[in-house]
Amino acid sequence: MVFISDPGNAKDSFLATPVIANLEVTRAGNVNIVDQTTAAALLIPSPVNISHLLDQLGPALAKIGA
Fold first, then answer.
1. Alpha carbon distance 66, 53 (integer Å)
2. CA distances from 16 to 3, 24, 36, 60 (A)
3. How close are the terminal C-alpha atoms of the chain, in Å?
4. How far apart are CA 56 and CA 1, in angstroms?
5. Rounded to whole angstroms, how far apart are CA atoms 23 and 15?
6. Burial class of residue 41 (count of CB atoms within 10 Å of its CB; 0-12, 13-18, 19+)
7. What is the pLDDT along the chain (66 residues), one digit of tens a residue?
8. Based on C-alpha coordinates, what's the Rg of the chain?
9. Is the pTM of this model over 0.85?
10. Short-list 37, 43, 34, CA closest to 11
């Protein structure tokens, strides 16, 4: 998981970096970049933000078992 706090084109720039772009996980489409709100919720987990985390990370977590 990658935390990017700049919402602009940081995701595209990061994924285009040759080292990252050539990783098998990137080529397979298994990189999940979260927004700043989700990153903060992961860093400071609480019962209040569990629902948000499940909503945001659910699709990525579902791929793990697939």
1. 20
2. 16, 14, 20, 20
3. 18
4. 13
5. 10
6. buried
7. 555 666 667 888 888 999 999 999 889 888 888 888 888 898 888 999 999 999 988 888 887 765
8. 13
9. no
10. 34
